[in-house]
Amino acid sequence: MTSITATPALELRGVRVRRGGRDVLDVPHLSVASGETVAILGPNGAGKSTLMLAAALLLPADGAITILGETARRGAHVRLRRQTATVFQDAALLDMTVRRNIEVALAMHGVPRATRRARAGEWLGRLGVAHLAEQRGHAVSGGEAQRVSLARAFAVRPRLLFLDEPFSGVDHATRAALTGDLRALLAAEGTAALIATHDHSEALLLADRVVLLDAGRPLQIGPAAEVLARPESEAAARFLGFSVLGPGGCALLGLQGADGATRAAVAPDAARLDVAGTPGVVRRAEAGGGAGRLIVELASGDTLAVALAVEALRAPSLAVGQETRVAVDARRVVWLAR
Amino acid sequence: MDLLLEALREAVRLLRTGDGDVYSITLRTALITGASTLVAALVGLPVGLGIALGRFPGQRVLLAIANAGTGMPPVVAGLFVAILLWRSGPLGALGLIYTPWAMVIAQALIATPLVVSFAAAGVMALPPSLHLQVRAMGAGAASYVWLIAREARLALLVAVMAGFGGVVSEVGAAMMVGGNLSGETRVLTTAAVLEVNRGNFGTALALGLILLMLVVLVSAALTTAQARVRRR
Predict the structure, then answer these.
(1) Are B84 and B131 a contacting pair, CB within 8 Å?
(2) Closest C-alpha among B47, B64, B52, B42 to residue B151
(3) A214 and A247 belong to one structural domain
(4) Which ipTM was obtained for this model?
(5) Same structural domain, A152 and A13
(6) Is A335 on the interface with B (CB under 8 A)?
(7) CA distance B174 to chain A (A)
(8) Nearest C-alpha of chain A: how many angstroms from B55?
Protein backbone atom coordinates (compact mmCIF):
# COMPACT_ATOMS: atom_id res chain seq x y z
CA MET A 1 0.00 0.00 0.00
CA THR A 2 1.20 3.50 -0.76
CA SER A 3 1.43 5.96 2.08
CA ILE A 4 0.68 9.60 1.41
CA THR A 5 2.74 12.21 3.18
CA ALA A 6 2.38 16.02 3.48
CA THR A 7 -0.67 17.48 5.22
CA PRO A 8 -3.50 15.33 4.00
CA ALA A 9 -6.89 16.75 3.12
CA LEU A 10 -8.33 13.51 4.45
CA GLU A 11 -6.88 10.76 6.56
CA LEU A 12 -8.58 7.61 7.80
CA ARG A 13 -6.92 5.49 10.48
CA GLY A 14 -8.43 2.25 11.65
CA VAL A 15 -11.87 3.19 10.38
CA ARG A 16 -14.45 0.48 10.89
CA VAL A 17 -18.16 0.28 10.36
CA ARG A 18 -20.04 -2.62 11.87
CA ARG A 19 -23.46 -3.75 10.73
CA GLY A 20 -25.36 -6.84 11.76
CA GLY A 21 -22.49 -7.94 14.02
CA ARG A 22 -19.80 -7.88 11.31
CA ASP A 23 -17.41 -5.35 9.85
CA VAL A 24 -18.75 -3.99 6.58
CA LEU A 25 -15.84 -1.56 6.38
CA ASP A 26 -12.34 -2.00 7.74
CA VAL A 27 -9.79 0.52 6.47
CA PRO A 28 -6.49 0.48 8.38
CA HIS A 29 -5.16 3.58 6.63
CA LEU A 30 -6.14 5.79 3.75
CA SER A 31 -5.25 9.36 2.98
CA VAL A 32 -5.94 11.94 0.30
CA ALA A 33 -3.28 14.61 -0.08
CA SER A 34 -4.17 18.22 -0.69
CA GLY A 35 -5.10 18.61 -4.35
CA GLU A 36 -5.01 14.86 -4.95
CA THR A 37 -7.81 12.74 -6.40
CA VAL A 38 -8.17 9.22 -5.05
CA ALA A 39 -10.63 6.78 -6.59
CA ILE A 40 -12.27 4.00 -4.60
CA LEU A 41 -12.77 1.24 -7.13
CA GLY A 42 -14.76 -1.86 -6.38
CA PRO A 43 -17.69 -3.99 -7.47
CA ASN A 44 -21.24 -3.46 -6.25
CA GLY A 45 -21.45 -4.20 -2.53
CA ALA A 46 -17.71 -3.67 -1.98
CA GLY A 47 -18.39 -0.96 0.59
CA LYS A 48 -17.53 2.07 -1.56
CA SER A 49 -20.54 4.10 -0.44
CA THR A 50 -20.05 3.06 3.18
CA LEU A 51 -16.46 4.28 3.01
CA MET A 52 -17.55 7.48 1.34
CA LEU A 53 -20.27 8.19 3.93
CA ALA A 54 -17.98 7.39 6.83
CA ALA A 55 -15.23 9.64 5.44
CA ALA A 56 -17.74 12.45 4.85
CA LEU A 57 -18.86 12.14 8.49
CA LEU A 58 -22.33 11.09 7.41
CA LEU A 59 -22.16 7.63 8.97
CA PRO A 60 -20.98 6.71 12.47
CA ALA A 61 -17.67 4.85 12.35
CA ASP A 62 -14.99 3.72 14.75
CA GLY A 63 -11.46 4.98 14.26
CA ALA A 64 -9.97 8.36 13.44
CA ILE A 65 -11.10 10.51 10.54
CA THR A 66 -9.04 13.63 10.04
CA ILE A 67 -10.26 16.31 7.68
CA LEU A 68 -7.91 19.15 6.78
CA GLY A 69 -5.81 18.45 9.82
CA GLU A 70 -8.64 18.25 12.35
CA THR A 71 -9.68 14.89 13.73
CA ALA A 72 -13.45 14.61 13.75
CA ARG A 73 -14.97 14.58 17.22
CA ARG A 74 -18.54 14.72 18.41
CA GLY A 75 -19.77 18.27 18.00
CA ALA A 76 -17.31 19.16 15.23
CA HIS A 77 -18.95 17.23 12.40
CA VAL A 78 -21.13 20.03 11.06
CA ARG A 79 -18.23 22.49 11.07
CA LEU A 80 -15.98 20.01 9.26
CA ARG A 81 -18.67 19.15 6.73
CA ARG A 82 -18.82 22.83 5.86
CA GLN A 83 -15.26 22.60 4.56
CA THR A 84 -16.22 19.77 2.24
CA ALA A 85 -18.87 19.05 -0.37
CA THR A 86 -20.47 15.78 -1.44
CA VAL A 87 -21.98 14.71 -4.73
CA PHE A 88 -24.12 11.58 -4.64
CA GLN A 89 -25.32 9.28 -7.39
CA ASP A 90 -28.75 10.82 -6.90
CA ALA A 91 -28.33 14.56 -7.40
CA ALA A 92 -30.92 15.07 -4.62
CA LEU A 93 -31.87 18.59 -5.62
CA LEU A 94 -34.25 20.32 -3.26
CA ASP A 95 -37.76 21.22 -4.42
CA MET A 96 -36.91 24.83 -5.22
CA THR A 97 -35.32 26.59 -8.16
CA VAL A 98 -31.93 25.39 -9.34
CA ARG A 99 -30.41 28.73 -8.36
CA ARG A 100 -31.91 28.51 -4.85
CA ASN A 101 -30.47 25.02 -4.49
CA ILE A 102 -27.01 26.48 -4.82
CA GLU A 103 -27.79 29.54 -2.72
CA VAL A 104 -28.97 27.32 0.15
CA ALA A 105 -25.66 25.43 0.09
CA LEU A 106 -23.78 28.74 0.01
CA ALA A 107 -25.80 29.96 2.99
CA MET A 108 -24.82 26.82 4.94
CA HIS A 109 -21.20 27.59 4.21
CA GLY A 110 -21.53 31.12 5.51
CA VAL A 111 -21.33 32.91 2.16
CA PRO A 112 -22.83 36.42 2.57
CA ARG A 113 -26.30 36.85 1.09
CA ALA A 114 -25.11 39.63 -1.23
CA THR A 115 -22.71 37.37 -3.10
CA ARG A 116 -24.73 34.15 -3.20
CA ARG A 117 -26.71 34.93 -6.31
CA ALA A 118 -23.66 35.91 -8.34
CA ARG A 119 -21.70 32.87 -7.13
CA ALA A 120 -24.58 30.54 -7.98
CA GLY A 121 -24.87 32.09 -11.43
CA GLU A 122 -21.14 31.80 -12.00
CA TRP A 123 -21.05 28.09 -11.21
CA LEU A 124 -24.20 27.27 -13.13
CA GLY A 125 -22.50 28.95 -16.07
CA ARG A 126 -19.27 27.00 -15.61
CA LEU A 127 -21.20 23.73 -15.62
CA GLY A 128 -23.20 24.80 -18.67
CA VAL A 129 -26.60 24.89 -16.95
CA ALA A 130 -27.10 28.65 -16.46
CA HIS A 131 -30.27 28.40 -18.56
CA LEU A 132 -31.82 26.17 -15.88
CA ALA A 133 -31.36 28.68 -13.04
CA GLU A 134 -35.05 29.47 -12.61
CA GLN A 135 -36.32 25.92 -13.23
CA ARG A 136 -37.36 23.75 -10.34
CA GLY A 137 -34.78 21.26 -9.17
CA HIS A 138 -37.20 18.38 -9.63
CA ALA A 139 -37.98 19.37 -13.21
CA VAL A 140 -34.52 18.96 -14.73
CA SER A 141 -33.20 15.77 -16.35
CA GLY A 142 -30.79 13.34 -14.69
CA GLY A 143 -27.69 14.62 -16.48
CA GLU A 144 -28.66 18.26 -15.91
CA ALA A 145 -29.39 17.57 -12.24
CA GLN A 146 -25.94 16.05 -11.85
CA ARG A 147 -24.40 19.15 -13.43
CA VAL A 148 -26.34 21.30 -10.96
CA SER A 149 -25.17 19.01 -8.17
CA LEU A 150 -21.56 19.52 -9.27
CA ALA A 151 -22.12 23.28 -9.49
CA ARG A 152 -23.56 23.21 -5.97
CA ALA A 153 -20.54 21.28 -4.72
CA PHE A 154 -17.89 23.47 -6.36
CA ALA A 155 -19.71 26.75 -5.60
CA VAL A 156 -18.99 26.39 -1.88
CA ARG A 157 -15.26 26.18 -2.73
CA PRO A 158 -14.67 23.01 -0.75
CA ARG A 159 -11.13 21.97 0.10
CA LEU A 160 -12.22 18.36 -0.06
CA LEU A 161 -14.82 16.86 -2.35
CA PHE A 162 -16.56 13.50 -1.93
CA LEU A 163 -18.11 11.98 -5.05
CA ASP A 164 -20.12 8.80 -4.53
CA GLU A 165 -20.58 7.19 -7.95
CA PRO A 166 -21.74 10.56 -9.23
CA PHE A 167 -22.33 9.56 -12.83
CA SER A 168 -23.63 6.00 -12.62
CA GLY A 169 -27.22 7.11 -13.13
CA VAL A 170 -26.67 8.86 -16.47
CA ASP A 171 -26.24 7.62 -20.03
CA HIS A 172 -22.82 6.89 -21.58
CA ALA A 173 -22.47 10.11 -23.55
CA THR A 174 -23.50 12.31 -20.61
CA ARG A 175 -21.24 10.35 -18.33
CA ALA A 176 -18.25 10.83 -20.60
CA ALA A 177 -18.91 14.58 -20.85
CA LEU A 178 -19.43 14.94 -17.08
CA THR A 179 -16.26 12.98 -16.33
CA GLY A 180 -14.28 15.28 -18.62
CA ASP A 181 -15.78 18.39 -17.03
CA LEU A 182 -15.10 17.06 -13.53
CA ARG A 183 -11.47 16.37 -14.41
CA ALA A 184 -11.03 19.91 -15.70
CA LEU A 185 -12.70 21.43 -12.63
CA LEU A 186 -10.64 19.38 -10.17
CA ALA A 187 -7.47 20.47 -11.94
CA ALA A 188 -8.52 24.11 -12.14
CA GLU A 189 -9.67 24.38 -8.53
CA GLY A 190 -6.98 22.16 -7.01
CA THR A 191 -9.63 20.49 -4.85
CA ALA A 192 -8.75 17.23 -3.13
CA ALA A 193 -11.29 14.56 -4.03
CA LEU A 194 -12.31 11.08 -3.02
CA ILE A 195 -14.43 9.46 -5.71
CA ALA A 196 -16.19 6.11 -5.56
CA THR A 197 -16.67 4.37 -8.87
CA HIS A 198 -16.85 0.93 -10.42
CA ASP A 199 -15.67 2.22 -13.78
CA HIS A 200 -11.96 1.53 -14.45
CA SER A 201 -11.62 4.13 -17.18
CA GLU A 202 -13.25 6.78 -14.99
CA ALA A 203 -10.78 5.97 -12.21
CA LEU A 204 -7.86 6.03 -14.63
CA LEU A 205 -8.88 9.39 -16.09
CA LEU A 206 -9.72 11.16 -12.83
CA ALA A 207 -7.56 9.68 -10.12
CA ASP A 208 -3.94 10.09 -9.11
CA ARG A 209 -4.26 7.00 -6.95
CA VAL A 210 -6.70 4.13 -6.81
CA VAL A 211 -7.89 2.07 -3.86
CA LEU A 212 -9.25 -1.34 -4.82
CA LEU A 213 -11.92 -2.19 -2.29
CA ASP A 214 -13.51 -5.59 -1.76
CA ALA A 215 -15.80 -6.68 1.08
CA GLY A 216 -15.07 -3.39 2.85
CA ARG A 217 -11.30 -3.87 2.87
CA PRO A 218 -8.65 -2.25 0.68
CA LEU A 219 -7.03 -4.89 -1.54
CA GLN A 220 -4.50 -2.62 -3.13
CA ILE A 221 -3.63 1.08 -3.09
CA GLY A 222 -1.34 2.80 -5.52
CA PRO A 223 -0.94 5.02 -8.58
CA ALA A 224 -3.97 4.57 -10.82
CA ALA A 225 -2.17 3.24 -13.91
CA GLU A 226 -0.07 0.85 -11.84
CA VAL A 227 -2.98 -0.61 -9.85
CA LEU A 228 -5.10 -1.07 -12.94
CA ALA A 229 -2.25 -2.75 -14.86
CA ARG A 230 -0.68 -4.80 -12.06
CA PRO A 231 -3.09 -6.41 -9.62
CA GLU A 232 -1.37 -7.84 -6.56
CA SER A 233 -3.93 -10.47 -5.60
CA GLU A 234 -6.31 -12.87 -7.25
CA ALA A 235 -9.33 -10.93 -5.99
CA ALA A 236 -7.92 -7.66 -7.36
CA ALA A 237 -7.10 -9.33 -10.67
CA ARG A 238 -10.58 -10.80 -11.06
CA PHE A 239 -12.25 -7.47 -10.25
CA LEU A 240 -10.05 -5.71 -12.82
CA GLY A 241 -11.15 -8.20 -15.48
CA PHE A 242 -7.93 -10.22 -15.64
CA SER A 243 -8.03 -13.98 -16.20
CA VAL A 244 -6.38 -15.86 -13.36
CA LEU A 245 -4.51 -18.95 -14.51
CA GLY A 246 -3.39 -21.79 -12.26
CA PRO A 247 -0.23 -23.89 -12.70
CA GLY A 248 -1.91 -26.09 -15.33
CA GLY A 249 -3.01 -23.17 -17.48
CA CYS A 250 0.39 -21.50 -17.18
CA ALA A 251 2.11 -24.69 -18.30
CA LEU A 252 -0.21 -25.10 -21.31
CA LEU A 253 0.46 -21.52 -22.39
CA GLY A 254 4.21 -21.89 -21.83
CA LEU A 255 4.29 -19.29 -19.06
CA GLN A 256 6.86 -19.57 -16.31
CA GLY A 257 6.97 -17.27 -13.31
CA ALA A 258 10.05 -16.06 -11.50
CA ASP A 259 10.67 -17.16 -7.90
CA GLY A 260 8.42 -20.14 -8.33
CA ALA A 261 5.20 -18.16 -8.81
CA THR A 262 2.59 -20.41 -10.36
CA ARG A 263 -0.51 -18.24 -10.63
CA ALA A 264 -0.74 -15.65 -13.35
CA ALA A 265 -3.10 -12.77 -14.11
CA VAL A 266 -3.62 -11.99 -17.77
CA ALA A 267 -5.38 -8.87 -19.05
CA PRO A 268 -7.77 -9.59 -21.95
CA ASP A 269 -5.73 -7.40 -24.29
CA ALA A 270 -2.60 -9.42 -23.43
CA ALA A 271 -4.28 -12.55 -24.83
CA ARG A 272 -4.99 -13.22 -28.51
CA LEU A 273 -6.34 -15.83 -30.91
CA ASP A 274 -3.36 -17.56 -32.52
CA VAL A 275 -3.43 -20.49 -34.96
CA ALA A 276 -0.14 -21.68 -33.52
CA GLY A 277 -1.33 -21.24 -29.94
CA THR A 278 -2.75 -23.46 -27.20
CA PRO A 279 -6.05 -25.19 -27.99
CA GLY A 280 -9.19 -24.30 -26.09
CA VAL A 281 -12.99 -24.31 -26.36
CA VAL A 282 -15.13 -21.16 -26.68
CA ARG A 283 -17.38 -20.96 -23.63
CA ARG A 284 -19.08 -17.58 -24.13
CA ALA A 285 -18.80 -14.10 -25.62
CA GLU A 286 -19.16 -10.93 -23.55
CA ALA A 287 -19.55 -7.28 -24.48
CA GLY A 288 -19.52 -4.09 -22.43
CA GLY A 289 -18.29 -0.52 -22.68
CA GLY A 290 -17.76 -0.91 -26.43
CA ALA A 291 -15.30 -3.81 -26.03
CA GLY A 292 -15.78 -7.54 -26.57
CA ARG A 293 -14.27 -10.53 -24.77
CA LEU A 294 -14.16 -14.14 -25.81
CA ILE A 295 -13.98 -16.59 -22.92
CA VAL A 296 -11.96 -19.68 -23.84
CA GLU A 297 -11.57 -22.76 -21.62
CA LEU A 298 -8.21 -24.50 -21.69
CA ALA A 299 -7.66 -28.23 -21.18
CA SER A 300 -6.52 -27.45 -17.61
CA GLY A 301 -9.96 -26.06 -16.78
CA ASP A 302 -8.66 -22.47 -16.60
CA THR A 303 -10.53 -19.85 -18.58
CA LEU A 304 -8.82 -17.11 -20.54
CA ALA A 305 -10.52 -13.89 -21.66
CA VAL A 306 -9.37 -12.63 -25.07
CA ALA A 307 -10.11 -9.03 -26.08
CA LEU A 308 -11.81 -8.85 -29.48
CA ALA A 309 -13.87 -6.35 -31.42
CA VAL A 310 -17.55 -6.91 -30.64
CA GLU A 311 -18.31 -7.62 -34.34
CA ALA A 312 -15.63 -10.32 -34.41
CA LEU A 313 -17.43 -12.21 -31.65
CA ARG A 314 -20.26 -12.92 -34.11
CA ALA A 315 -18.03 -15.08 -36.37
CA PRO A 316 -19.38 -18.67 -36.69
CA SER A 317 -15.91 -20.02 -35.93
CA LEU A 318 -16.16 -18.41 -32.47
CA ALA A 319 -19.56 -19.80 -31.57
CA VAL A 320 -19.94 -21.42 -28.17
CA GLY A 321 -18.43 -24.94 -28.21
CA GLN A 322 -16.09 -24.27 -31.16
CA GLU A 323 -12.44 -25.15 -30.81
CA THR A 324 -9.93 -22.33 -31.12
CA ARG A 325 -6.33 -21.55 -30.24
CA VAL A 326 -5.01 -18.84 -27.95
CA ALA A 327 -1.70 -17.30 -26.95
CA VAL A 328 -0.58 -14.81 -24.32
CA ASP A 329 1.99 -12.00 -24.39
CA ALA A 330 4.34 -13.36 -21.70
CA ARG A 331 5.84 -9.88 -21.05
CA ARG A 332 2.48 -8.60 -19.87
CA VAL A 333 1.63 -11.44 -17.53
CA VAL A 334 1.31 -10.41 -13.88
CA TRP A 335 2.52 -13.11 -11.50
CA LEU A 336 0.52 -13.32 -8.31
CA ALA A 337 2.00 -13.97 -4.90
CA ARG A 338 1.23 -17.44 -3.56
CA MET B 1 -90.49 10.96 -0.06
CA ASP B 2 -92.74 13.65 1.39
CA LEU B 3 -90.67 13.62 4.53
CA LEU B 4 -87.50 14.22 2.54
CA LEU B 5 -89.04 17.08 0.54
CA GLU B 6 -90.40 18.64 3.70
CA ALA B 7 -86.97 18.33 5.30
CA LEU B 8 -85.29 19.96 2.32
CA ARG B 9 -87.80 22.86 2.37
CA GLU B 10 -87.16 23.35 6.08
CA ALA B 11 -83.40 23.24 5.51
CA VAL B 12 -83.60 25.96 2.86
CA ARG B 13 -85.78 28.11 5.14
CA LEU B 14 -83.38 27.77 8.06
CA LEU B 15 -80.39 28.56 5.93
CA ARG B 16 -82.20 31.61 4.49
CA THR B 17 -83.47 33.01 7.81
CA GLY B 18 -80.76 31.72 10.16
CA ASP B 19 -83.43 30.62 12.64
CA GLY B 20 -82.69 28.15 15.39
CA ASP B 21 -79.20 29.49 16.10
CA VAL B 22 -78.00 27.76 12.93
CA TYR B 23 -75.28 30.31 12.26
CA SER B 24 -74.10 30.66 15.86
CA ILE B 25 -73.81 26.87 16.01
CA THR B 26 -71.86 26.92 12.77
CA LEU B 27 -69.50 29.59 14.05
CA ARG B 28 -68.96 27.66 17.29
CA THR B 29 -68.25 24.49 15.31
CA ALA B 30 -65.68 26.29 13.17
CA LEU B 31 -64.00 27.81 16.23
CA ILE B 32 -63.84 24.59 18.26
CA THR B 33 -62.74 22.47 15.31
CA GLY B 34 -60.25 25.12 14.20
CA ALA B 35 -58.78 25.41 17.70
CA SER B 36 -58.47 21.65 18.14
CA THR B 37 -56.86 21.30 14.69
CA LEU B 38 -54.45 24.12 15.55
CA VAL B 39 -53.47 22.42 18.82
CA ALA B 40 -53.08 19.10 17.00
CA ALA B 41 -50.87 20.77 14.37
CA LEU B 42 -48.74 22.57 16.95
CA VAL B 43 -48.18 19.35 18.86
CA GLY B 44 -48.40 16.78 16.07
CA LEU B 45 -46.14 18.32 13.42
CA PRO B 46 -43.05 18.64 15.65
CA VAL B 47 -43.69 15.21 17.16
CA GLY B 48 -44.14 13.67 13.70
CA LEU B 49 -40.95 15.33 12.47
CA GLY B 50 -39.14 14.22 15.61
CA ILE B 51 -40.21 10.61 15.14
CA ALA B 52 -39.21 10.66 11.48
CA LEU B 53 -35.88 12.45 11.87
CA GLY B 54 -34.69 11.63 15.37
CA ARG B 55 -32.77 8.68 16.76
CA PHE B 56 -33.94 7.89 20.28
CA PRO B 57 -35.09 4.91 22.32
CA GLY B 58 -38.78 4.20 22.00
CA GLN B 59 -39.02 5.89 18.61
CA ARG B 60 -40.79 2.95 17.00
CA VAL B 61 -43.08 2.52 19.98
CA LEU B 62 -44.09 6.17 19.72
CA LEU B 63 -44.81 5.80 16.02
CA ALA B 64 -46.80 2.63 16.67
CA ILE B 65 -48.85 4.47 19.31
CA ALA B 66 -49.49 7.35 16.90
CA ASN B 67 -50.47 4.94 14.13
CA ALA B 68 -52.80 3.08 16.47
CA GLY B 69 -54.20 6.42 17.62
CA THR B 70 -55.40 7.22 14.11
CA GLY B 71 -58.09 4.61 14.62
CA MET B 72 -59.08 5.76 18.10
CA PRO B 73 -62.89 5.90 18.43
CA PRO B 74 -63.96 9.47 19.33
CA VAL B 75 -66.12 8.16 22.19
CA VAL B 76 -63.03 6.62 23.79
CA ALA B 77 -61.16 9.92 23.54
CA GLY B 78 -64.26 11.65 24.91
CA LEU B 79 -64.57 9.19 27.75
CA PHE B 80 -60.91 9.64 28.68
CA VAL B 81 -61.19 13.44 28.72
CA ALA B 82 -64.53 13.29 30.56
CA ILE B 83 -62.99 11.19 33.34
CA LEU B 84 -60.08 13.63 33.61
CA LEU B 85 -62.27 16.73 33.66
CA TRP B 86 -65.21 15.33 35.61
CA ARG B 87 -65.87 17.40 38.73
CA SER B 88 -64.54 14.63 40.95
CA GLY B 89 -61.77 13.75 38.43
CA PRO B 90 -58.05 14.60 38.57
CA LEU B 91 -58.55 17.88 36.68
CA GLY B 92 -62.08 18.56 37.90
CA ALA B 93 -61.01 21.65 39.81
CA LEU B 94 -60.38 23.41 36.50
CA GLY B 95 -64.14 23.39 35.86
CA LEU B 96 -63.72 22.63 32.15
CA ILE B 97 -66.26 19.84 31.73
CA TYR B 98 -69.18 20.84 29.50
CA THR B 99 -67.28 23.85 28.14
CA PRO B 100 -65.92 24.44 24.63
CA TRP B 101 -62.43 24.01 26.10
CA ALA B 102 -63.23 20.43 27.05
CA MET B 103 -64.37 19.84 23.47
CA VAL B 104 -61.13 21.35 22.11
CA ILE B 105 -59.10 19.07 24.38
CA ALA B 106 -61.02 15.96 23.36
CA GLN B 107 -60.91 16.78 19.67
CA ALA B 108 -57.22 17.66 19.82
CA LEU B 109 -56.67 14.26 21.39
CA ILE B 110 -58.40 12.69 18.40
CA ALA B 111 -56.63 14.81 15.77
CA THR B 112 -53.08 14.75 17.14
CA PRO B 113 -52.31 11.06 16.38
CA LEU B 114 -53.58 11.65 12.84
CA VAL B 115 -51.26 14.63 12.38
CA VAL B 116 -48.31 12.79 13.96
CA SER B 117 -48.81 9.66 11.88
CA PHE B 118 -49.33 11.45 8.54
CA ALA B 119 -46.47 13.90 9.18
CA ALA B 120 -44.03 11.13 10.14
CA ALA B 121 -45.05 9.04 7.13
CA GLY B 122 -44.65 12.03 4.81
CA VAL B 123 -41.15 12.82 6.05
CA MET B 124 -40.11 9.16 6.04
CA ALA B 125 -41.24 8.92 2.42
CA LEU B 126 -38.61 11.45 1.33
CA PRO B 127 -35.66 9.82 -0.45
CA PRO B 128 -32.82 8.93 1.97
CA SER B 129 -30.40 10.67 -0.40
CA LEU B 130 -32.14 13.96 0.33
CA HIS B 131 -31.43 13.62 4.05
CA LEU B 132 -27.81 12.80 3.31
CA GLN B 133 -27.45 15.67 0.87
CA VAL B 134 -28.85 18.22 3.31
CA ARG B 135 -26.50 17.01 6.04
CA ALA B 136 -23.59 16.88 3.59
CA MET B 137 -24.22 20.52 2.71
CA GLY B 138 -23.31 21.34 6.29
CA ALA B 139 -26.78 21.88 7.70
CA GLY B 140 -26.95 22.24 11.46
CA ALA B 141 -29.84 20.64 13.35
CA ALA B 142 -32.26 23.55 12.87
CA SER B 143 -31.45 24.04 9.17
CA TYR B 144 -31.72 20.31 8.62
CA VAL B 145 -35.20 20.08 10.16
CA TRP B 146 -36.32 23.23 8.34
CA LEU B 147 -35.14 22.04 4.92
CA ILE B 148 -36.57 18.56 5.36
CA ALA B 149 -39.90 19.97 6.61
CA ARG B 150 -39.89 22.27 3.59
CA GLU B 151 -39.38 19.30 1.28
CA ALA B 152 -42.22 17.45 3.01
CA ARG B 153 -44.51 20.50 3.16
CA LEU B 154 -47.25 18.95 1.04
CA ALA B 155 -47.33 15.87 3.26
CA LEU B 156 -47.39 18.08 6.36
CA LEU B 157 -50.35 20.01 4.97
CA VAL B 158 -52.12 16.73 4.26
CA ALA B 159 -51.41 15.74 7.88
CA VAL B 160 -53.19 18.87 9.12
CA MET B 161 -56.08 18.23 6.71
CA ALA B 162 -56.37 14.70 8.08
CA GLY B 163 -56.49 16.08 11.61
CA PHE B 164 -59.25 18.51 10.68
CA GLY B 165 -61.19 15.80 8.88
CA GLY B 166 -60.93 13.58 11.91
CA VAL B 167 -62.66 16.04 14.23
CA VAL B 168 -65.01 18.17 12.19
CA SER B 169 -67.57 15.40 11.83
CA GLU B 170 -67.13 13.55 15.11
CA VAL B 171 -70.03 13.56 17.53
CA GLY B 172 -69.22 11.11 20.34
CA ALA B 173 -66.54 13.10 22.14
CA ALA B 174 -68.25 16.44 21.56
CA MET B 175 -71.42 15.11 23.12
CA MET B 176 -69.66 13.45 26.03
CA VAL B 177 -67.47 16.33 27.19
CA GLY B 178 -69.50 19.24 25.81
CA GLY B 179 -72.92 18.11 26.89
CA ASN B 180 -74.62 19.71 23.85
CA LEU B 181 -75.63 22.77 25.92
CA SER B 182 -77.67 25.24 23.90
CA GLY B 183 -75.74 28.45 23.24
CA GLU B 184 -72.60 27.07 24.88
CA THR B 185 -71.35 23.75 23.57
CA ARG B 186 -73.84 22.85 20.87
CA VAL B 187 -72.07 22.23 17.56
CA LEU B 188 -73.39 21.10 14.18
CA THR B 189 -72.96 17.38 14.80
CA THR B 190 -74.49 17.31 18.29
CA ALA B 191 -77.30 19.64 17.21
CA ALA B 192 -78.10 17.38 14.23
CA VAL B 193 -78.29 14.33 16.53
CA LEU B 194 -80.61 16.22 18.88
CA GLU B 195 -82.93 17.34 16.08
CA VAL B 196 -83.18 13.81 14.68
CA ASN B 197 -84.11 12.56 18.14
CA ARG B 198 -86.83 15.19 18.23
CA GLY B 199 -88.07 14.21 14.77
CA ASN B 200 -87.09 17.59 13.27
CA PHE B 201 -85.56 16.15 10.14
CA GLY B 202 -85.58 19.47 8.28
CA THR B 203 -83.47 21.17 10.90
CA ALA B 204 -81.18 18.16 11.11
CA LEU B 205 -80.79 18.16 7.35
CA ALA B 206 -80.02 21.89 7.33
CA LEU B 207 -77.35 21.36 9.96
CA GLY B 208 -75.94 18.44 7.97
CA LEU B 209 -75.80 20.55 4.80
CA ILE B 210 -73.99 23.34 6.61
CA LEU B 211 -71.51 20.86 8.06
CA LEU B 212 -70.92 19.53 4.58
CA MET B 213 -70.36 23.08 3.25
CA LEU B 214 -67.94 23.81 6.09
CA VAL B 215 -65.91 20.71 5.25
CA VAL B 216 -65.91 21.57 1.55
CA LEU B 217 -64.88 25.19 2.24
CA VAL B 218 -62.00 24.27 4.54
CA SER B 219 -60.85 21.50 2.21
CA ALA B 220 -60.97 23.89 -0.75
CA ALA B 221 -58.94 26.46 1.18
CA LEU B 222 -56.34 23.87 2.16
CA THR B 223 -56.22 22.46 -1.37
CA THR B 224 -55.61 25.96 -2.72
CA ALA B 225 -52.83 26.40 -0.19
CA GLN B 226 -51.45 23.02 -1.25
CA ALA B 227 -51.38 24.07 -4.91
CA ARG B 228 -49.61 27.32 -3.99
CA VAL B 229 -47.04 25.45 -1.93
CA ARG B 230 -46.43 23.14 -4.89
CA ARG B 231 -45.79 26.06 -7.22
CA ARG B 232 -43.42 27.85 -4.84
Answers:
(1) no
(2) B52
(3) no
(4) 0.83
(5) yes
(6) no
(7) 40
(8) 13
